[in-house]
TrEMBL record:
SUPFAM superfamilies in UniProt: Cytochrome c
Protein name: Cytochrome c1
Database matches in InterPro entries: Cyt_c-like_dom, Cyt_c-like_dom_sf, Cyt_c_1A/1B, Ubol_Cyt_c_Rdtase_Cyt_c_su_prd
Keywords: Electron transport, Heme, Iron, Membrane, Metal-binding, Transmembrane, Transmembrane helix, Transport
Cytochrome c domain: residues covered: 51-154, 155-253
Membrane-spanning parts: 267-284
Lineage, uppermost ranks: Bacteria, Pseudomonadati, Campylobacterota, Epsilonproteobacteria, Campylobacterales
Amino acid sequence: MRELKILAVVAALTLITYWGVEPFAHSQMHPHVAPADYKFKDVEGLNGMAGNAENGATLVQSNCTACHSIEKVGFPQLMDDASAAAAYGVVPPDLSTAGKLYNADYLAAFIKNPAKASKVEHKFVDGRVHPMPGYDWMQPQEIADMVAYLQSIAPKEMTNKEVFTDACQRCHGIKYGDMMKGTMAAKTPTANIKAYMGKIPPDLSQYIRSRGAEYLHTFVNDPQKHLEGTAMPRVGLTEEAETQVIAYMEEVGDSKKAEREALGPKFLIYLVIFAIFAFLWKASKWREVH
């Protein structure tokens, strides 16, 4: 009985200490971050304007294909990755899947002013300009037409790996995705991406475990929320595309998660049984003393 009283006192003091300290510690180590905004309410997007995909095809082909490939409709990449990175700082994305990956309002805002939409205006000062020129000289209807065209040629479904490849792999590698062949390395050569970003973007193989899904959702949606002044652009992924990116990171970096979580309840049952036997053994050995 005396031991139970001691246990109760220790437990009470521990809980009181935890209740008093943990909220403060959490607020310091994990400051509050606003939830992800998948509607991108801060951008000047389409404002409900419907686009004409047929006219958009003409506009995209005449304004975008000098730098961007659109493999889906027969516009190949004009330069290899190394040459493209040397010219632009980073490999320009193929636009075949842009209409699937990116929020339509964000995409319209990005076409108008890439640096502003992606929240990296602080990078382009003192004469430095974003490698993609802004098309804010276009009429809003023309930009809506371009977005409509990109949506019309985009695939209806994509695998998690395909989404990651098109959304992230120009800058980030994920080497654990293909250890043998090395096909999941970043597309932009290291020297070029370092000069463009200011540092080498990290390999993402273990980021799902070092950061966690909740952090990644808010970070990918808007990197400035976590790292104000970072060179990583806001990329404008839809909620579905972002979820697929993180799902692929989990497939690669935490492939045993389901097995680990399934083992948890079994281990707790084992601990309970072990505690019961330990208590019975102790009681039998100390019965005469007590």
